[in-house]
Amino acid sequence: MSSGSGSTAQANSAAGRVGIVLVSHSPRLAEAVAELIRLLGAEQAVVTVAGGTDDGQFGTSDRLVAEAINAADRGAGVVVIPDLGSSVLTTRRLLLDDEVELPPDVRIADTPFVEGAVAAASTAAFGAGIAAVMAAAEDARSIPKL
Amino acid sequence: MSTPGSPGSPTQHRSVSTLDGDAVAEWIRRVADAIDGQADQLTALDAAIGDADHGINMRRGFHAVREALPQQAGELPGTILITVGRTLISTVGGASGPLYGTAFRAAGKSLGDAATVESAALLEALRAALAGVKRLGAASEGDKTMVDALSPAVSAFAKAVERGDDLAVALTAAVSAAQRGVTATIPLQARKGRASYLGARSVGHQDPGATSTALILDQLRAVVVDAAGE
Predict the structure, then answer these.
(1) N or C end of chain B: which has fewer CB within 10 A?
(2) Of chain B residues 134-153, which have a CB less than 8 A from chain A?
(3) Does the pLDDT of residue A1 top 90, yes or no?
(4) Distance (Å, rounded) from C-alpha B185 to C-alpha B203?
(5) Which of A61, A84, A96 is closest, CB to CB, to B93?
């Protein structure tokens, strides 16, 4: 349902929710994790995606990440879940750039992509504040799977 | 490019003391050409310890930079470098986009609206570039990254400027230090970037980011040395 940097169908009813941005080298991976989040019952979460480069190739896009962050903003802050490498650098560079228009409270979660995204979105879907969403995302690093 | 004093005899050492916008544009054009020539080698280095796209990404970015240069004709040095940075940020989909983008943009901002750049201002610009890269990537010397070339280059340039060396001599010192830094990455274990996932297997391989940094600085040295020889 989501386009490259579009918002979910719940967008308009999600005022005050922490937005979740999935940044991946792969457009399909970002979309798939967004879909997983919906399938796991967190469809109330505001989730936007920035996957791949501007022309749909493997990599990251400064513009797509900035758009996704702005599209995810519902006034309660935004948590970015990057997959690895340049997803982190691209996002971090945007947050350090004083010439880019972004929401006031954007944070990057240091967490595995799938697990952290699910944890963040599930928490945000219940209306939790940004600190709780970040904590949930980062706790996901150490929750045993077996 | 400005050279102080009179031409004098053919054996007199001509000293180039500043860079203007044209010199900066020439530098960047030469970087684009050098990246083109070295793209396969850079990719090969990156294939050993990364995701095999450093040369490809740099070539793509600097092709876009080369295309943006004509509109920068007559522009200030700082403006040109900011444009280089912005272009890399918006066209390179790998780590070198944000990293080199930040480096060039920080250098350009440091130069402000100066029409000519002498050693002291260039040193500040290089320091700003290094600071920006370190802040963004959180890398230090020894992590096996571009910082391992850029940091020693800046230190060497600073020492040369302090000694009163002219721009060509100072840049030659900077490039030598950068190249030593590149070689020094070979035995290091990567602590940043894709190579860090390889752990001990990254040891024994030269870092591609450090390699391209030395290449970029070497082209600046070449522009200044060539101008001094004219």
Answers:
(1) C
(2) 135-137
(3) no
(4) 8
(5) A61
β-strand partners of A80: A21, A108
Nearest to B102 among A61, A84, A93 (CB): A93
**Given a cut of 80, is residue B10 above it in pLDDT?**
no
Q: Which structure tokens are listed for B64?
A: 């876009």
Report ipTM for this prediction.
0.88
CB spacing of A53 vs B93 below 8 angstroms: yes
Calculate mean pLDDT across residues A45-58.
Answer: 97
pLDDT band at B9 (very low <50, low <70, confident <90, very high): very low
| Axis-axis angle for helices B96-111, B208-229 (nearest 10) | 40
Is A90 in contact with B98 (Cβ distance < 8 A)?
A: yes
Task: For residue A64, give the amino acid letter.
Answer: L
Cα–Cα distance measured from residue B206 to residue B148, given in angstroms and rounded to the nearest whole number: 11
Residues of A in contact with B137 (CB under 8 A): 89
| Mean pLDDT across chain A | 92
**B77-91 vs A62-72: helix crossing angle, rounded to 10:** 70
For Cα atoms B14, B34, B90, give the angle at the middle one, nearest 5 degrees: 115
Whether A81 contacts A111, CB under 8 Å: yes
Measured in angstroms, the CA of B98 and the nearest CA of chain A are apart by: 6
- pLDDT (mean) for B154-172: 97
Name every chain A residue with its beta carbon within 8 A of the beta carbon of B101.
Answer: 93
User: Residue B200's CB: how many other CB atoms inside 10 A?
Assistant: 8
Between helices B77-91 and B54-68, what is the axis angle to 10°? Answer: 130
What distance in Å separates residue A15's CA from the closest CA in chain B? Answer: 31
Q: Which residues touch B62 (CB under 8 Å, ≥6 apart)? A: B31, B32, B35, B36, B88
